[in-house]
Amino acid sequence: MQEKRRAVIEKGVWIPIEIRENNIIERTSGLVNGGYRTENPAIALPIPLCNKLDITAVEPTEEPSLWLTNTFVDVRILVRDKDTEWIRAEVHAHMIRPYIIISTPLASRMNIGIWDLDEGTWFFRDEPSKIRSPTKPRIYPFRI
Fold it and tell me: pLDDT at position 4, please?
């Protein structure tokens, strides 16, 4: 039996999340990215989602594709079998990527452990024997 191949965009650790900004809750997915290093929990939102949440990019960071927004949102993992806490995260606007990226400090605060980066499997660090599959990526297309 041949294994089903996943599209490249589907590779990686995709986590089902909710983002809360004021009275809006967005159910979506985020990619855990070990290269997205920040001092505090942060989440990079694509410009189309920033527009939906009325978040404005203010100025670029050291990484030209990431912009500061001076906005914070609440983020949590959305799974059926476990209640997770809301975590406050600084928002960066991503000028290029059409998907959400989770910083290393946010992943740590969310209690995420990585089982296999390529397969996208993950676990909660307080449940290391319960390996979870990645969720489907949610893409926010740019409109020109």
Answer: 67
Report d(CA 129, CA 32) in Å as an integer: 20
103 burial type by CB count under 10 A (0-12 exposed, 13-18 middle, 19+ buried):
buried
Length of the chain: 144
Q: How far apart are CA 144 and CA 142, in angstroms?
A: 7
Contact indicator for 18, 27 with CB cutoff of 8 Å? yes
Contact 76, 112 (CB under 8 A): no
Query: What is the set of domains in the chain, with CATH numbers?
Result: 11-124 (2.40.70.10)
Residues 41, 42, 43, 49: is their CA dihedral positive or negative? positive
**pTM (two decimals):** 0.92
